[in-house]
Structure formats: C-alpha cells, structure tokens
Write a structure and sequence with these properties.
Largest sheet: 5 strands, mixed
Bound molecules: 5'-O-[(R)-(carboxyoxy)(hydroxy)phosphoryl]adenosine, zinc ion
Strand order of the largest sheet: 3-2-1-4-5
Order of helices and strands: EEEHHEHEHHEEEHHHHEHEH
Length: 327
C-alpha cells in the first residue's frame, strides 16, 4: 500500500511517500526565512508559500520514491490543528488529487502526527508500543497524552499559555538573536562557560491542580525583565540562554515524570520541534535509564513538521478500517 502524506499546517510545505509503513521519500520546503524578520510566523505569508510550492514538493516526493499518482492508494493530509489558511491549501490540494485520481483520502491530526513521528522506524508499533505516555513539545503545542491505542489518545496535560518552542522563539527575539529561536538559543547555551546560572522560575511544579499542565509565559517575562537590567553583553546573552533552557528542560522532564507516574505506564514517546534540542534529548535518555522506561524519540529530521508522520498515521487509520474519511 502506497500513501502520499501532505502537511501544510504552519510554515513547512511537506510531502512524503510511504509504502506499508516504510518511508520511501520525504520533502520539506520551509518558508521560515520569510518569517524571520517578523520574529514569528505570518499566516498570510505561510499560506501563499504553500500555494506556490505544494505542487512541486509533492511531485518531487513522488519522483524520489519512483512513484506516480497512479501508484498512490491513499492520501493522508493534515486537517487540524494549524493556521486555517495554510491547512486549507494542503487539504484543497489533497482533495483535488484524490478526486482526479479517485484515491481515498484521510484527514489526520497534526499533533497526533508528531506522536507517530517517534515510531517511524518501529515495526508493528500498533501492537508493541501501547500503552505509552506521549509528549508533544513544539512551537505550537506542549501537551501530554496517555495513548492506549491508535484510537485512544487522551489529553492529560497541556500548556495554559505559550508552547515551549514559542518561548524559545520569544526569548531569542527579546535578546535580538533571530528566528527560529530554538537552535540559536541552544547554541548560545552551549557557549556559556560560567556557573552563575540565573534561577529563572519553573512554573506549576508545586500546584497539584495543574500537576500535568505547563506554563511558559512567566518564564519568558522573567527573561525580559532580567534582560532589561542586564549588562547586555554577548556573555550575558549566553548565560540567559543557558539558564532559560535549563528552566524549560527541567519543567518538561518533571512533568513527563509525573505523567509516567500518574498513568503507571513504562513507555514514553516525545515528539515536536523542541526535541531537536540536545540537552532535552540527553535528559530524556537519562530519565528513561533511571526509571527503566522505554523511550521513543524521533530522528532529528522528523522532529519538526514533516509529512512522513502524517502518512504514517493516515496509513494506520486506514488499515484499521476506520471510517475517518472526513473530507
Ligand atoms: O514541530 P515544529 O517544527 O512546529 C510546530 O508544530 O510548532 O516546532 C518548531 C519549534 C520552534 O519554536 C523552534 O524554535 C523549536 O521548535 N526548536 C527548538 C530547537 N529546534 C527547533 N527548540 C529548542 N531547541 C532546538 N534545538
Ligand atoms: Zn508541528
């Protein structure tokens, strides 16, 4: 079975071809350079970029996989959540191909796609991986799920304000470091060689009512106030980046630990753009070793938005014979 995955929920135009669970090809064209000067994604620019590139990205993904439209058995497309204009381009394009080629089409949840990105190399994940705790730590989402089966991903925690990746982006903006903030802040943190770490706040760690929820906007504000009265040297920027990153990683690690305790499961999957972060990856590996938890992380190329994760989930839904043909 050959599946064409299409992803256009934010600023990446992505297509991937999958055959029976194996990724044959994947193309991602990002409009990130066009948003950089604004310090965040401009929805209209993202939508127009998708319109311009969706056809060529899909064509190249098919060529790389040595497939043509005639070979496609299923189209899986991100239907939500995301920027409405951007989603519209992907779903309209997917529907057109589906209609023209008489190919079944499935709408897929983007956040659930990030969860599946952790299992792209895992054979038989449907049978072997469940139940597990999933965390999606990205620019748009910071959420925890108790995943009992492909049809049962229960939300158990989420951010009450900013997403973790969004906080990285905003901190980079405050420090005038560029966009997207995550990779830049990580590099700056690596360059910090002092031991005078700033004790930035770790939110919602004490409250039992919010014990699985996140909040990052106070941390971002704390960085802003610190920056205002700082000496504004490059060294100071590195220190702030290090201290901020520690605060985010601490909170993410602690909330995940709590989710594992709360659910009592022994498997963990963590996906999303922030999982590119080497410090977070190391902490998660340490957590898994210490607590004998089986850990699934996406390869770095599948942390950010991609279409392989969408194809994977779509194919699994289809094989489950679910009537999820929403479009
Ligand atoms: O998953 P993704 O590509 O898009 C969303 O679905 O949101 O995540 C993008 C986010 C951005 O906020 C970016 O700054 C962050 O992931 N990110 C990182 C790193 N690389 C990307 N955050 C921390 N460290 C990184 N190395
Ligand atoms: Zn995403």
């Amino acid at each position: 079975m050959v599946t064409l995955g299409i992803e256009t929920s934010c600023d990446e135009t992505a297509a991937a071809v999958m055959a029976d669970g194996k990724v044959l090809s994947g193309r991602v064209s990002s409009s990130v350079h066009l948003h950089a000067r604004y310090g965040g994604v401009v929805p209209e620019i993202a939508s127009r970029y998708h319109v311009e590139y969706i056809f060529s990205v899909c064509k190249k993904a098919l060529e790389d996989a040595k497939k043509s439209v005639k070979d496609i058995d299923l189209i899986a497309v991100t239907e939500s959540p995301g920027l409405p204009g951007s989603l519209l381009v992907g779903t309209a394009f997917a529907k057109a191909v589906s209609f023209a080629g008489n190919i079944p089409i499935i709408g897929v949840n983007h956040v659930f796609g990030h969860i599946l990105s952790c299992f792209l190399d895992v054979k038989d994940m449907d049978r072997q991986a469940f139940p597990f705790v999933a965390a999606v730590i990205s620019g748009g989402h910071t959420s925890l799920y108790h995943c009992k089966s492909l049809e049962d991903f229960a939300l158990i925690g989420r951010t009450k304000d900013d997403a973790a990746g969004e906080a990285f982006d905003k901190v980079a903006k405050i420090l005038g470091l560029g966009y997207p903030g995550g990779p830049i802040v990580e590099k700056r943190a690596e360059a910090f060689d002092g031991d005078d770490v700033i004790p930035f706040p770790r939110a919602l760690l004490k409250s039992s009512a919010d014990h699985l929820d996140f909040s990052f906007s106070g941390l971002k504000t704390a960085v802003m106030y610190y920056w205002r009265s700082s000496s504004k040297t490059e060294k100071e920027k590195n220190k702030i980046c290090f201290s901020f990153q520690e605060a985010v990683v601490d909170v993410v690690e602690k909330k995940i630990s709590r989710a594992l305790q709360y659910t009592g499961v022994e498997r963990l999957a963590v996906g999303g753009g922030v999982v590119n972060n080497g410090v977070l990856r190391k902490r998660l590996h340490a957590l898994s070793e210490k607590n004998k938890i089986e850990l699934y992380l996406p390869k770095k190329k599948y942390c950010g938005d991609n279409a392989a994760m969408i194809a994977s989930l779509g194919e699994k839904y289809y094989k489950l014979a679910e009537k999820k043909t929403l479009l």
